[in-house]
Write a structure and sequence with these properties.
Length: 254
C-alpha cells in the first residue's frame, strides 16, 4: 500500500460495515488516521479493531450521524485524538422503501434526517474546523444512482440523493476559497452485507448491469479515495457514478 494519505485525518460515517468500512480501511492502510462511526456500537468497535489489527490508525464513536451534537462530538474527538480533520465522508444513510401514495411521514423524516441533515451538518462542522486549521480539505457525500434514475418505491430516498449532489455544487461557492473540495459518488447496485441478505440480488443485478455484475465495495471505495486524494485537488462540485453502466440503460430489477 502507498502512503498517499499520510498526515491526513478522516471522519467516515456509517462505517461499521459495507462501503463505509471499506473506505475507512483503505484510507487507514494508505496512511490516514481515521475516525469511524456507526449507530451500532458492537459493529463499529469490531470494524475499528479490524482496521487497527491491519496496521491502521483508527478510533470509533457509536452514535446517530444525524444528530448535530453528535456530529460536533465526532469532529472534536478527531481533533483531540489526531490533531486535526482534513477529510469528511458522509456515508451514513438510510433506505426506507415504500409506495409514494401511502408513504408515512415518519419514514420521510427519518430518511431526510440522516441522508440530508446528517450530511449537511457534517460538512458544515468539518468545514469550520478545516477553515480554522487553514489546511484545506476534502468533503464527499454518498449519493446514489437513484438520484439520477427513478426507482420503484424509492421516491423519498432518491430525492435525498439528488439533493446531496446539488449541495455539493452549492458548496463550491461557499468553500473553494478555503481550498476545500466537495464532491459526490453515486453507487449503483453494490454487494454488501445488507444487499446480499437478498439471495437473488447478485443474480438480478448481474443480469441487468451492462458490465455483467454489481459493484463491489472495493469499486466504490476506489472512486471515493481518488476524489479525496491529493490527485483530485482541482476537482470540485462533481459527481462520479459507479454502476457498471446501469444508468446508461436503466432496466428495472422488477
Amino acid at each position: 500500500m502507498t502512503n498517499k494519505f499520510s498526515g491526513q485525518v478522516a471522519i467516515v460515517t456509517g462505517a461499521g460495515q459495507g462501503i463505509g468500512f471499506e473506505i475507512a480501511r483503505q484510507l487507514a492502510l494508505q496512511g490516514a488516521a481515521v475516525l469511524i462511526n456507526d449507530i451500532d456500537e458492537a459493529l463499529v468497535k469490531k470494524a475499528a479493531g479490524q482496521i487497527t489489527a491491519a496496521g491502521g490508525q483508527c478510533v470509533c464513536l457509536a452514535g446517530d450521524a444525524a444528530d448535530i451534537g453528535f456530529i460536533q462530538q465526532m469532529v472534536d474527538t478527531a481533533v483531540q485524538k489526531f490533531g486535526k480533520v482534513t477529510i469528511a465522508i458522509a456515508n451514513a444513510g438510510i433506505t426506507l422503501f415504500g409506495d409514494f401514495l401511502t408513504y408515512p411521514a415518519g419514514s420521510l423524516q427519518s430518511v431526510m434526517n440522516l441522508n440530508l441533515q446528517g450530511s449537511f451538518f457534517l460538512a458544515q462542522r468539518v468545514s469550520q474546523q478545516i477553515i480554522q486549521q487553514q489546511t484545506g480539505g476534502r468533503i464527499l457525500f454518498m449519493s446514489s444512482v437513484t438520484g439520477h434514475q427513478a426507482h420503484q418505491n424509492l421516491a423519498a430516498y432518491g430525492m435525498t440523493k439528488a439533493a446531496l449532489e446539488m449541495l455539493a455544487k452549492s458548496l463550491v461557492i461557499e468553500l473553494s476559497t478555503y481550498q476545500i473540495t466537495v464532491n459526490t459518488v453515486a453507487p449503483g447496485a453494490t454487494l454488501t452485507e445488507r444487499t446480499q441478505e437478498d439471495a437473488e440480488y447478485k443474480n438480478t443485478w448481474s443480469r441487468i448491469t451492462p458490465m455483467g455484475r454489481p459493484a463491489t465495495v472495493e469499486d466504490v471505495a476506489a472512486a471515493v479515495l481518488f476524489l479525496v486524494s491529493p490527485d483530485a485537488g482541482h476537482i470540485t462540485g462533481q459527481n462520479l457514478v459507479i454502476d457498471g453502466g446501469w444508468t446508461a440503460v436503466s432496466p428495472s430489477p422488477y
